[in-house]
Amino acid sequence: MAREPATMKWWxxxxxxxxxxxxxxxxxxxxxxxxxxxxxxxxVRRPVELDSIELPxxxxxxxxxxxxxxxxxxxQIADDKLSRLTHAxxxxxxxxWRMRRGVVPWAPDRVIFPHQHDxxxxxxxxxxxxxxxxxxxxxxxxxxxxxxxxxQDERMVVSLDMRRMDRLLRLDPESGVAxxxxxxxxxxxxxxxNLEGFTAGHFPDSFxxxxxxxxxxxxxxxxxxxxxxxxxxxxxxxRMATPAGDIETRTVPRASNGIDVNHLCIGSEGxxxxxxxxTLRVHRIPDKKTTRAYLFRNFETGIAAMxxxxxxxxxxxxxxxNDPNKTALSARFPKARPxxxxxxxxxxxxxxxxxxxxxxxxxxxxxxxxxGSGRQHTRQRRAxxxxxxxxxxxxxxxxxxxxxxxxxxxxxxLRDYLFERxxxxxxxxxxxxWSNLMPLYRAVISAMQTAFxxxxxxxxxxxHVSHSYHxxxxxxxxxxxxxxxxxxxxxxxxxxxxxxxxxxxxGGSLSHHHAVGYEHMPWLESDVSEAGVAAMRALKNGLDPExxxxxxxxxxxxxxxxxxxxxxxxx
Length: 571
What we know:
The chain is α+β, with helices and mostly antiparallel strands. The protein folds into 4 domains: 116 residues, Uridine Diphospho-n-acetylenolpyruvylglucosamine Reductase, domain 2 (2-Layer Sandwich); 117 residues, Uridine Diphospho-n-acetylenolpyruvylglucosamine Reductase, domain 3 (2-Layer Sandwich), CATH 3.30.465.10; 121 residues, Alpha-Beta Plaits (2-Layer Sandwich), CATH 3.30.70; 102 residues, GMP Synthetase, Chain A, domain 3 (2-Layer Sandwich). It is built from 22 helices and 18 strands. Strands 15-12-14-13-17-18-16 form a 7-stranded antiparallel sheet, sandwiched between helices. Helix 2 packs antiparallel against helix 5, helix 11 packs across helix 15 and helix 18 packs antiparallel against helix 19. The chain starts with 25 loop residues before the first helix and ends in an 8-residue tail after the last helix.
């Protein structure tokens, strides 16, 4: 039997044996009590038992079933309850709320595990022949609703799990490119590259449970995008199987051959076909890596320093600027260590508040990553710190950077912990030009605080600038609030809608790196124009005329009324 990649727990994030360790972070729960104004700790609501969940009866297309079982080995086809359940949804707030309560109105009818491109080609040919829907599945980490079909008709639906296709096919060390199968999870891809002395430099928050193909299909961004770019900046060539035939682009550095076909595939979210192989830029593993922390008087000053780094071509590999609320959260997030003091407590001593006269609740933390050879690392750090100093920053050392690296993939586990206590937590992210960054930030914060007040709930919202570029940067908002006892998801969607409305009304993008799915669909036309959606629809009709692939996405027709009720009980 083929090696089976780990599947995340069906009711939450990550490995089934791992839960958020709040006991080792006493300052964090103390902060939560203060923010949410708990008089006593809330009761814990555990997920329902797996046995209590009833999935819809699997539909069977006999002709497809017969042909696919002649084409593939028995262990490449699954229809058991757990396989269907773990491939039904991603990890959005709506997904997790439903799963934890056993509200599963939809699940794929079969899960299929291809081993190579030719098998994907054969599966799509059979799906088109027998009118069966296919939804590509990577790691299942998506938070935008990319795995649940928008159009649900009577046709059989297959989830195509790509994770057995995880080989590094070719590394060209002289050219600095690597060809990899699209099902490789982040750690698997890095492991294979590291053995040859290379790294992709792409580390999204979902790194442990997302795949190369998923990165490309959703326009992923990694933590080091300031230096390496988003995934679309890394792609050199693509192989994608579509219902109309295979797309394969050449591995060349640049070309002038009409519309960029690579970019027709990047961000396609499984609507046009299945990405099977990708050639990416890769880099030698740097000799030295460090992450250091700096404090700025306020958010605006920190943003000005980041802009200066971009303008003077001295940007570190990572710049992550927290606003005051995220700074307060970051100060309390690290695990307690005996005999140590939290970094922010030291920094907020007499010097910062007394000599520098900074206002404590305006101070912002910036984490900067530096890497390269010894000389490159030193040059990079000195250049950035010279700019930071010009804007009045105070360096607070490498300790916060070590804490960040220790826990940088832990936040989704915290979300699950809060869910169990009826505290709903989610993220919304956007991007805009530098001149609009602070106006957009203020507008979103104001709108969300108004939404919390309207819902009569205690809420928290923080933001960090996670990726910066020559023309602008991203704003990544995290929000949490005490959910109502009744109509929790309807309340959540009203609050979530507030953030997205504020993005589009104030010059931001619909999303910077979380894709469209169905969670962002009602806003798509406002973001890319009516003609832009028509272009996507025409492309879909050309490559997938029978609407086999992940039906209903990126083509319009999914409005707010459907969005506010999709997949909810009784809707």
